[in-house]
Amino acid sequence: MEQKKDIQLIKKGFITVIAGPCAVESEDQLNAIANGVKEAGLNFLRGGAYKPRTSPYSFQGLEKKGLELLKKVSQEYGLKVVSEVTDAATVEEVAEYVDVLQIGTRNMSNFALLKKVGRVANLKNLSVILKRGWASTIKEWLLAVEYITQQGDCEVVLCERGIRTFETYTRFTLDLSAVPVIKKMSNLPIIVDPSHAVGQSDLVIPMSRAAIAVGADGLIVETHHNPEKALCDGQQSLNSRQLKDMLGQVSVFAKFFNKMVR
What we know:
Elements: E1 14-20, H1 27-39, E2 44-46, H2 64-77, E3 80-84, H3 91-95, E4 100-103, H4 111-124, E5 127-131, H5 138-149, E6 156-160, H6 178-185, E7 190-192, H7 194-198, H8 201-213, E8 218-222, H9 240-254, E9 260-261
């Protein structure tokens, strides 16, 4: 009989913060980052193994080897794993190594993938993070959820990660109004990814504060022990000191909602 994992990403009374590198690069890199995540008092480690990049010449991830490292290191530090699944053919493989399946912005409308993720997540009792497409309306986003939930009962968490507008100073435009709109239109939890939205580490902390202030249930941020040498997205990754600083500031805002950061 298939043994199910007992994972709940969003819990009442808590702000969930997921942190880790854009991509798994090596065991030493992941150990250093996981240690920082654990010391910060967090429970969820993110890391990309399969990396769909805009440029085919960019680092594409370690694939299965990356998943193996994620599982090994997360078990050593007592952390739960969040990693992106990029196509229907690898859903079962990724599900063997992670606790939360993440669907990225490029795949929000990949309906075959959404249905497959829904079936596997229900079978294994995994949580699912569904990021908003960078050119998708909120209605389209909510309809995408239905492709997952029609396959069974699993925890689905929405993630606002910025949308494409005419503004080019930031990587995308972080639509924080989506948080109260989602609260109004559904009963789904929603977290915010300020890292991909702004694309600059110095802007991640203020936008993290703002996300919690408007009612987000959590954050997913990129962190790296040596951002200058990261193989991808180093410019938007927090170092260990910045991560702790961000968590301290976010905790102040969480108190307004009688919540604690975890």
